Amino acid sequence: MAPDTGRKPRDVANSTGRPIPRNMTQQVEKVVAQVGSIILGKARQIRLAIACLLARGHLLIEDIPGVGKTMLAHALATSLGLDFQRIQFTSDLLPADIIGVSIYDRENGGFRFHPGPIFSQVVLADEVNRATPKAQSALLEAMEEHQVTAEGETRRLRQPFFVIATQNPSYQVGTFPLPESQLDRFLMRIHLGYPDNEAERALLQGEDRRDLLAGLDPCMTAQELIALQHDAQQIHASAALLDYVQALVGHTRRAAEYVNGLSPRAALAVLYAARAWALMAGRGHAVPEDVQAVLPGVVGHRLIPADETGRINGADVAARLIRQVAIP
Q1: Residue-by-residue DSSP string for 126-149
Q2: pLDDT tens digit string along 209-250?
Q3: Are 53 and 60 in contact (CB under 8 A)?
Q4: What is the pLDDT of residues 126-142, one digit of tens each?
Q5: Do the Cβ atoms of 97 and 123 come closer than 8 Å?
């Protein structure tokens, strides 16, 4: 996390001079605390997930079954006060099951479109890599354009719109690897991992997480979340910070140790996520530490070392990149 700047609690001015309300960032802290009461011992992952959503990105959560991936998505949606739909991805899932389908209406003598779960504000694509590539591709237009095209007609999606996808490790039975084009649509990928001993003991001794989840109340409204997203876009990024982002991206394109370098979309993802992280820290400007904090989540699923195969640790890839590229 970026260091504390020592500011007293007050509104923080962004690059345009318009103050960012302090109470809005306090609401974010309430979301972090509330989700943290459900997903124990994972404060950093929760913050990364919220930063991803504030940056108007989509989140991929990859881990083994049973560590709380689905619970985290549901807790986030509830705490942010957004409509939520869960799609269980299976090998027989069809694109129409996601987008929707037209059914003949006898009374009107014509076809009527019945929207699918993609028309919710938060869509949980649970175990997304258990569906075939054809079903996975139904998410692409929605994630990139915030719209879907069905039967020749384009329909806009509600705002804010987030896809939170979970996936099991690719070495497990019954999975279809996500193509690079779809992986790139996710602004971040995070891993939850096993809880530490203290968190697991509290989990064993506490109430059922599903019962606690049912008792959660929204910490903000959809309109307040949209306002925070706008504030995140206005966080100042200095020329020196942009130099650092370009240096990181440029190194991956020149170095022979990576299969492919980071794309311009990846560079924008780093910048947007760093701005959101700065906003959550209560600052009106982003610093290199913000870039370094979000880098593992942003580049871990985009960079593949040329000398490694199998399971790739995004944190290790990002740590290597941070060591190789000096802050300008």
Answers
A1: ETGGGS-HHHHGGGHHHHHHSEEE
A2: 888 888 888 888 888 899 899 999 999 999 999 999 999 999
A3: no
A4: 888 887 778 877 888 88
A5: no
* List of residues 6+ apart from 201 with CB closer than 8 A: none
Amino acid at 119: F
The pLDDT, as a whole number, for residue 155 is 87
Do residues 298 and 266 lie in contact, with contact meaning Cβ atoms separated by under 8 Å? Answer: yes
Enter the pTM of the model.
Answer: 0.84
Q: Where are the beta strands (DSSP E) in 57-203?
A: 59-62, 84-88, 100-105, 110-115, 122-126, 147-150, 153-156, 162-167, 188-190
Residue 152 has pLDDT above 80, yes or no: no
Backbone dihedral angles phi then psi of residue 134, each to the nearest 5 degrees: -65, -45
Q: Is 71 left (phi over 0), alpha (psi -120 to 50) or beta?
A: alpha
Q: Which CATH number is 235-328's, of 1.10.8.80, 3.10.20.600, 1.10.8.60, 3.10.180.10?
A: 1.10.8.80
Collapsing DSSP to helix, strand or coil, 166 comes out as strand
Among candidate residues 126, 119, 117, 136, the one with its CA nearest the CA of residue 183: 136
pLDDT in tens, 54-82: 999 999 998 888 888 888 988 999 998 89
